[in-house]
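Homework help thread (please don't just give me the answer)

Our assignment gives two proteins as sequence + structure token strings and asks us to describe the second one. The first is just a warm-up. Here they are:
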Amino acid sequence: MAPAAAPGTNRFTTATWLFLRLLALVHLVAFASCWNQIDALVGPQGLMPAERLFAAAREQLGTSAYHQFPSLVWIFGGAAFLKGLVAAGVALSLLVFAGIAPALGLTLLWVAYLSLCVAGQTFFNFQWDALLLETTLLAILLAPWRTLPRWQRAEPAPLARLLLVWLLFRLMFLSGLVKLTSGDPTWRDLSALTFHYETQPLPTVLGWWAHQLPAAWHRAACAAMFAIELAAPFCLFGPRGARHRAAWLFVALMLLIALTGNYTYFNILTAALCVLCLDDAHLAALARRLRLPAATVAPDSEVAHVSHVSAAPAPRWLLWPFAAAVAALTFAQFVPALFRSRPWAFVEPVAAAVAPFRSFNTYGLFAVMTNPRPELVFEGSNDGRTWQAYEFPHKPGALGRAPTWVAPHQPRLDWQLWFAALGSPQQNPWVLGLCEHLLRGNPVVLDLLAHNPFPAAPPRSVRVVRYEYHFTDSATRRATGQWWRRTPLEFYIAPVSLRPGSR
């Protein structure tokens, strides 16, 4: 006779409980991270004022602008409301974490974060912003539809959990697939990691150390990454042991990425999705092994007898049609991505209609690797001969400044300057706008900097120099104390000044 299955096998009460609280923490970080940035980025005195975006959209698109740019900023304006939106997001995150009206709270968080991302324009257009929106929308169906479940645990609707596992599958598998189908030879010959650590947007100190490892180690690590991203996702739909191992492999990959690069809350959010693959019996065994308190996991009696009535899941009239629509659309997006073909013609109108809501996505980070690393350095001068550099908090600048630890916070200006360095000033007109703010000494924007070399009065001229940056090696760092070396390439923006009398 086969041994009886452990209580909690293939039940997910604890996993759901943990996932919802991790998701609430990710939202807390995402909104709180914006508090000291939002005014400088898209406020009335910021780099890309949101009110200008909405005014231009209304003028050019008419009533269709409300669909193309779905945001509460249409109703409440973009000045003080932006800060209010951030504060509301923080408050809602805390309520969801406490288990107060989680389904309603997640719905409001989705609306608030979508509103913020639309108003945030290029500064809020990262894949993890889209991933957070998609995860939150699907999690509404997973959360208890009760006002005060608080810290109680209940079995989720299997279909709601399956949609989030399907999201994790697409995220991981497509991230591996695009690397091979992009045509970048450094992924195919496994050499991409020999330079990735120094060319990624915001490396950590451990990223510098990882860069020093032998090329053979980097190739082996790249091969292991492909095995995890391309093979392990299929185990999510296999036997429970394979599913558990795949989830832990993803968590380990996220940990290694987080140690070597600052990728905001992306790693935590992906790990939260992995939690939904770990059933209660597995988590109970893990808790016993780690000698965690008994309350960490659901008691066996609760696991065995939890009621679907007490779970108060999303009503079937909403869950089944919505799940069918999500599965159909995301599968229709997934297959063309798999074969690098055009989207199916009948899908394109639907995909275009839902695209403004940023919640039905394809994924794939670092499809084409950046090599070498261009970096923008902003300099000011009063005489046109002596130039002093502005320093940003986390992007590379001074050669002796070590890479910083900043995640899960995202310094969005530092991040966006990495992308701007890859393009031209014409593709990134806001960079010239940043120069104007430096020339005017705008205190709102200057608050985003780590060092202003002109504290008394702004300079007469500003320029932007594009450099090529590389990590130093161990011997150079011991001898000079420098973490970086650089070579000037060109003026990204030649010296500019304000017109006389315009200051």
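The one we have to describe:
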Amino acid sequence: MKYVGLQTQIWRNNSKSVLLLILFPFVFFALSWLFYFFLLDKEVYDIQDVNYNWLQTIPWIAIGVAIWFFIAFFAHSKMIQKATGSRTLERRENKRVYNLVENLCISTGMKTPRINIIEDDSLNAFASGIDNRTYTVSLSRGIIDKLNDEELEGVIAHELTHIRNRDVRLLIVSIVFVGIFAFLSEMLMRTVVYGGGRSRGKKDGGNAVIIAFALALFGYLITSLFRFALSRKREYLADAGAAELTKKPQALASALRKVSSDAKIEAVERKDVAQLFIENPGEKKKKVAFASMFATHPPIARRIEILEQF
């Protein structure tokens, strides 16, 4: 796959970030309108009543989404660190890693990001952050110990390309918004299962919960599909960027072969965070064509094949 160029990709990802900031609230507002449309009795209420009820709730929805986004957006570093079991890797612990990261950053003129380590023998890595203050490259103990210098350099270059392309910012924005629908779906599912609406003895209350759950689940599926598509494409571009940066595509291909043999990080249970890794540590590979729509990463064999063509 031909690398499209740094500035072009940065512009595209910044544009997509803005689009996501518009798209996700739009989906949320559209689903809230559908909630009233399906809930209100059409024999008693008309479309004007639907619109009136919807307009009354818009400010509260907007405030709720804004609060969720504010908290998640600015606390994402700690949330990701906790979800992955990562910690800061001190220079004195591993000068080799720092030398590789710093040399690559010097060659590209970028500020050196934080370096974290995950104490796990599996082979994996990921980048995260939204700005120079929070940009971080996290490496597992296994990937540090089991890759040679050229292979590890390729992996680090891949993660630095995610940062340079603003991939990480784009993914953080999508994770934050998809998380809203995931939270609502889970909360409403528990209400349905444990009879939240029936416990009050109100049929309408039960119907409202069921409708809300169905719409929240639908919103989660729609936004997840969009997120998955973004995630798959960015891996190809980061592979190409790493090959261009190191001039050693075969080294990254070799690293990916080793990663594919053992990418499972035991500490990672959250699916949204798992998509940040160079290879999803919790994703089961399925041979069904339709299932690929829900994959966060392209087949690693295909990525290796493309790298070998450089």
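TA reply:
I won't write it for you, but here's a hint about the kind of observation we're looking for: Residues 6-178+221-307 form one domain.
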